[in-house]
Design brief:
The chain is mostly beta strands. The chain has strands at 2-7, 12-16, 24-26, 30-31, 34-35, 43-45, 53-58, 61-62, 67-74, 83-87, 90-97, 101-106, 112-120, 124-125, 127-128, 135-138, 141-146, 149-151, 157-163, 172-176, 179-186, 190-194, 201-209, 212-214, 220-224. The protein is built from no helices and 25 strands. β20 and β21 form a beta hairpin. The radius of gyration is 25 Å and the shape is elongated.
Amino acid sequence: PCQILTSSYTQLKCQTAAGKASQVLPVVVKVNGMESNCGSSCTFTYSDAKTARIDSVIPSVIVGDENTIRIYGSGLPSGASDLEIKIGKTPCIVTSSSQFAASCRVGPVVAGKHVLKIRHGTQGFAMFEAGAPNLIDSLAVVSSITPTEGSIMGGTELSIKGSGFDPTAGRTIVKIGTNYCSVELVTSSEVVCRTSDHDPGSYEVCYFSSSERICPCTVFLTLIDKKY
């Protein structure tokens, strides 16, 4: 299959899947089950010489809202405009590119492991050699929680600051002990939630996003039984 990107009455654009080197394959277009006629050469060649190679990626683990990724290999384009890099669905803005090295700058990336995709604009995706990581691990970090004390009757608004948070609606959960903290706002660097009622004591604050669970052992919320 060649994934259709755009189509009109006179032109199709599609993106090839991976294939074995030196394969020369017929290109077949079907419209409503009818196979097209070929008016000229209708073949596509998978070329080893047209495939960029990636030998190393530094770093493979990122944290925070600003990171620079350096890529080393061969067959990369000589101009930054001819290279596209994505970490999962997040674009990594290419700042330099030459035949053997490239670099890009990425902003906030949701916590988790993300597939690294490197595409030479005119030739297709690069191949990762053995030992070269094709995954980027974005870490979630909780740097502070304010305030650290609140009423056992709930209603305390917490500001949890850090990085790697997921702003997508419904993807972020905060727990204080075993009780949920109702999430009111999420950005890549802050979660705001409101506590529910709970027994007095000090409880670990945990942030969940998809499969990521971050419980900074030094950060606790103390619920106090007193009149306000």
